[in-house]
Amino acid sequence: MTAKDEIDTSRPHPARVYDYWLNGKTHYEADVAAGDRVVQVWPGVLLGARLNREFMHRATRWLAREAGIRQFLDIGSGIPTEPNLHQVAQAVAPETRVVYVDNDPIVLRHGQKLLRGTPEGRTAYVHADFTEPETILEAPELRETLDLGRPVVLSLIALLHFITDERGAYDIVRKLMDALPSGSYLVVSHATADFDPDLLTRVAEAYQSSVAEGQIRSSSEVSRFFDGLELVDPGVVVAHRWRPDDGESQPDITDAEFPVYGGVARKP
């Protein structure tokens, strides 16, 4: 294991903080402390983490069932939390293939849990950084699992608000989508300050001071990630309002209580 792959438990990491909010078991004291600082500012973050996860589940089911997609590239996959994306997709279509990507060594250590799919399908894990898209696209694990001549879903759940404009967020998404064929899809969820700027400013300050840098974006700025793509109805909306399942009870909350946009779009 290289120095880059060593787990530093003295500093919080976004994947482990998120795991803590989801009531997982793979986090450390530093992650709990950082997560609690955000909870003190925004108690609703615990519900928000769950609703964000549910958006991923709904989008994945829709793409597998309605759009007929059988290949997914999930970047920023985080620590395995069941049901994982491949479990949702393969429940619809067992032959589905999924590649997970993350740069946290602890996700790498637990990556075997992401590889337990159906006999008909395939799953793989790539240890790489989103800001280095070439290393993702050229990874043997990806090339051996996905056919880039057929449609692929690029899933970026709660990832892009960690990537500033200065680090090339829009260019990176464009490079990844350029590598995928017509009929592919982009899925994004992203925090916003559109509904309560003061709250999100305080959340960003609490988070960025201890966990990671980032950039909260407006509706138009989140929509820009979908430039050149065909948005699926209802477009870019607060994530828990994106195609709720029939019979699914809707949380009795305002948009300001879950300030996260979600959207899905098709590459023409």
UniProtKB/TrEMBL annotation:
Q: Which residues form a coiled coil?
A: none
Task: Output one GO BP term.
Answer: methylation
Q: Which UniProt keywords apply?
A: Methyltransferase, Transferase
Picking any one GO molecular function of the record gives: methyltransferase activity
Q: Which SUPFAM superfamilies match?
A: S-adenosyl-L-methionine-dependent methyltransferases
Enumerate the Pfam families for this protein.
Answer: Methyltransf_19 (PF04672)
* InterPro entries cross-referenced by the UniProt entry: SAM-dependent_MTases_sf (IPR029063), SAM_dep_MeTrfase_SAV2177_type (IPR006764)
Please state what the protein is called. SAM-dependent methyltransferase
Organism whose genome encodes this protein: Streptomyces bathyalis
